[in-house]
Amino acid sequence: MRIIGLDVGRKRIGVAMSDPMGIIAQGIKSIAGEDPDAAIQQICDFAKENEAGNIVVGLPLNMNGTEGPMAKEVIGFADRLKEKTSVLVTMWDERLTSLQIERDLVFMDVSRAKRKKINDMLSAQIILQSYLDAQGKRTDDV
């Protein structure tokens, strides 16, 4: 069963997907986030095309674990997504994900313009991989 990971932002939504065994996450694409209804439809279509069993949505909590304005927006987006799909939608703590990606890309000397294009997709990949790792599946278990 494939699992989809999302990094939801106001402008872009990063999309990642697991392998069929649910072990490894791969960044797939970024979609426009300015029109939430259109974005939700694209996500629902993508989940159906890939026979996803779960959609993991990164929840941007504050460092102290509380919900700020962006977390509330993401929860609202996830609630709307739940209404439109029969696929399980799971919230997952994404604190420091974007910062981790930004640091890694700067270290690899990726240009600012290219970082902007791939940051959301890579954040979705990190969110999903974190979720997969927490589920306890490892390649030596296979």
Uncertain residue segments: none
Shape: globular
- In what range is the share of β-strand residues? 25-35%
Radius of gyration: 14 Å
Tell me about the biggest sheet?
Answer: 5 strands, mixed
Number of strands: 5
Helical content band:
40-55%
Distance between the termini: 15 Å
CATH topology: Nucleotidyltransferase, domain 5
Q: Would you state the CATH class?
A: Alpha Beta
CATH architecture: 2-Layer Sandwich
Total helix count? 4
Strand neighbour order, sheet with most strands: 3-2-1-4-5
Overall SS class: alpha/beta
CATH superfamily, by name, is YqgF/RNase H-like domain
Mean pLDDT: 89
Count of individual domains: 1
Helix and strand element order: EEEHEHEHH
Describe this structure in words.
With 142 residues, the chain is an alpha/beta fold. The chain has a single domain (2-136), classed as Nucleotidyltransferase, domain 5 (2-Layer Sandwich), CATH 3.30.420.140. 45% of the residues lie in helices and 25% in strands. Strands 3-2-1-4-5 form a 5-stranded mixed β-sheet. The longest helix has 23 residues, at 112-134. The radius of gyration is 14 Å and the shape is globular.
Keywords:
142 residues, alpha/beta, Nucleotidyltransferase, domain 5, 5-stranded mixed beta sheet, 5 strands, 25% strand
SSE inventory with pairings:
Blueprint: E1 2-8, E2 12-18, E3 25-32, H1 36-49, E4 52-59, H2 69-84, E5 88-93, H3 97-107, H4 112-134
Helix pairs in contact: 1-2, 3-4
